[in-house]
Amino acid sequence: MTSANSILNNPFLNKGTAFTLAEREALGLVGTLPSHVQTLAEQATQAYDQFQSKPSNLEKRLFLMTLFNENRTLFFRLMDAHVVEFMPIVYDPTVADSIEQYSHLFTDPQNAAFISVDDPDNIEAALKNAADGRDIRLVVVTDAEGILGIGDWGVNGVDIAVGKLMVYTAAAGIDPAQVLPVSIDAGTNNQTLLDDPLYLGNHHQRLTGDRYYDVIDQFVTAEQKLFPESLLHWEDFGRSNAQVILDKYKDQIATFNDDIQGTGMVVLAGILGALNISKESIKDQKFVTFGAGTAGMGIANQILDELKRAGLSEDEARQHFYAVDKQGLLFNDSPDLTAAQKDFTRDRSEFSNADDLTTLAAVVKTVHPTVLIGTSTQPGTFTEDIVKDMATHTDRPIIFPLSNPTKLAEATAEDLIKWTDGKALIATGIPASDVTYQGTTYHIGQGNNALMYPGLGFGLIASKAKVLNGETLSAACHALGGIVDTTQPGAAVLPPVAQLTAFSQKLAEIVAQSVVDQQLNKEPITDAKQAVAAMKWTPSYQDLPASLALN
Ligand SMILES: NC(=O)c1ccc[n+]([C@@H]2O[C@H](COP(=O)([O-])OP(=O)(O)OC[C@H]3O[C@@H](n4cnc5c(N)ncnc54)[C@H](O)[C@@H]3O)[C@@H](O)[C@H]2O)c1
Ligand SMILES: O=C(O)C[C@H](O)C(=O)O
Ligand SMILES: [Mn+2]
């Protein structure tokens, strides 16, 4: 006989006060709940009132996480109704605050799997125990070396995996019982954590080199063995590991790196949206990527792919890029280039002032970019001078300050609109309010991979994709075209988060169709759209089998 507590404490089964009298009778719950039976809608109203009474975003998040820990159906019902309001609370930017304080605020492991590099023999056991018999189709894993732009947060970073998965369910409708957040605790180089007696992770420096990659490999092997139908999503790994890991597994299994590919997709989709507004061709653009790290180079590669699809040769396409990092413009003789950066360097002989190109200001002044992307983690670096300089050489400058969270953004949307007299076509990493300037209201798209990865991932899972390739990524980037009415003055370059559910569904269908068209599905599928519809979970209470009481 299952005890009342094992049902009430199981967030995938629990209905709380919504258990009917008959269910209470059948499941051994009589007398364990107040008498009045509520509907899900009534529970949602009560919970939303409590949510609103919380004084800060972090407290709002803690309240929502309590609900999430207790009752997934109720949590997602509420998120469904308030997605625009909840996104910045459960996800970026408030998730950054919760990560920084994770060890001090800890109350619940949230059904995540915690893998320690000090205990490699138990990797499979950790995944199995955390899954607890659930049919896992989606794993988000982080080692938290590069959380957003706030650096190394060790085991605290598990919250980003939990947060990304919340967005997956809210946006695309993956069943929350089919997902697994995973933390790989490889140690941390964050001295504050190492010095903190309450820090919940391994108190030692990060494991590196072959021993680290061996742990990653053991994790992938166990993950694929236990959950052969799952998609593996990598999040916030460090710059020196993210691309290496992706390259190792991308042709073997269904996997993607969100910071590289998810970000590349949302930026290309945003640029396509911007070019729809300006009526320009992508072949006429000059791209400066400021912050040539994991995201910056993922973006450059996705745009490069688009230029080649538009008919440019590899060499011609590469001429459109100027990658800027700490050293300034990256040249083929710059020291300390990463493997990804080497593909996007310039030759000093192209510039009479090559030695002066050590700052973003000098690069913009010399190159006259039409598109400026920020993934540098350096706040305020898109200065008024730089932006005004850019705007004197192009009619509709495309400017995406994408560094997260809020405190790290290269510029605010409001300043960019003001400095360019309303000409800039903008997307920001975190949500930005509308900007009203000289009688026009400008809507600001959120250039965050959250617009893309739920639909991408769901489409791959629903179509049982063997791998994700460039063809499918490209199809997904073009999927959002037409959703925004770009003829409206002040139109955003990307669709609003308010439509997240609708466009994630469309994206998933396009991704699944691309997989099926290329015969990359592991099992036969006759109708990709139908496969997506069949996989979709909605937050409503299901009848619990009476057999639960007899287990
Ligand atoms: N909006 C989105 O969807 C999205 C997606 C991914 C990453 N990001 C943001 O982009 C930022 C970078 O993330 P990442 O994963 O690429 O990290 P990363 O560490 O791989 O890359 C950051 C790069 O910026 C460079 N940099 C640091 N200081 C600089 C300076 N003063 N001038 C020029 N370059 C400098 C670093 O050398 C590094 O190459 C983060 O803030 C992250 O939140 C946003
Ligand atoms: O997590 C986000 O908000 C986007 C992105 O993956 C990031 O690392 O900043
Ligand atoms: Mn990320």
UniProtKB/TrEMBL annotation:
Identify this protein by name: Malolactic enzyme
InterPro entries under this entry? Aminoacid_DH-like_N_sf, Malic_enzyme_CS, Malic_N_dom, Malic_N_dom_sf, Malic_NAD-bd, Malic_OxRdtase, Malolactic_enz, NAD(P)-bd_dom_sf
SUPFAM superfamilies (UniProt xref): Aminoacid dehydrogenase-like, N-terminal domain (SSF53223), NAD(P)-binding Rossmann-fold domains (SSF51735)
Identify which cofactors the protein needs according to its UniProt entry.
Answer: Mn(2+)
* Stretches assigned to the Malic enzyme NAD-binding domain: 260-516
Q: Name one GO molecular function term.
A: malolactic enzyme activity
The entry sums up its family as follows: Belongs to the malic enzymes family.
Q: Which NCBIfam families match?
A: malolactic, PRK13529.1
Matching Pfam families: malic (PF00390), Malic_M (PF03949)
**Under which EC number(s) is this enzyme classified?**
4.1.1.101
**Which PANTHER family does the entry link to?**
MALIC ENZYME-RELATED, NAD-DEPENDENT MALIC ENZYME, MITOCHONDRIAL
> What are the Malic enzyme N-terminal domain coordinates in residue numbering?
68-250
Which spans of this chain does the record mark as coiled coil? none
> Native species of this protein?
Levilactobacillus fujinensis
Q: What class of enzyme is it?
A: lyase
Q: Which UniProt keywords apply?
A: Lyase, Metal-binding, NAD
